[in-house]
User: What shape does this take?
Amino acid sequence: MKTGAVIADAGVPGGFSSYDTMENVDAADMIRRMIFSFRRAGVADIVVVTGYKAEETERKLKKLGVVFLRSPSYETEQLIDYAVRGFSYLRHSCRRIFFCPAENPLFTEETIRLMLEQKAPVVIPSYEGKRDIPYWLIQILRTGSRPTEETED
Assistant: This one.
């Protein structure tokens, strides 16, 4: 089976996606860089979950061969909802799935390759020994579904 990636770009400004406050930065350029990094590292299937400014983002990236999943309720959804949407789309065709918010493009294809070499069921990158990943993301990676309140403890 292949390896896939989900890039979450559905949030509204002021939430976890705040491109509007960054002058001279095109969100589509940031996502394009992520797509190229994934592709150079050998990631086959890439899904971009869009919402806020979806038409603009999709228009700018349409020739890159990625799948767009639109989030119609992006104003009220959270990052976990975008992750679930993307994982659900890829889970039958991909053995491993990367997940990253679009506003965090600061990784290299070498980082992706190193993660692909790992045999662990869940790989979480860290910097200087620090990692920051919510439990729910690990739960989604393991089960393919959003955790209930009972499984969050």
User: Anything to note?
Assistant: Strands lie at 2-9, 45-50, 67-70, 94-101.
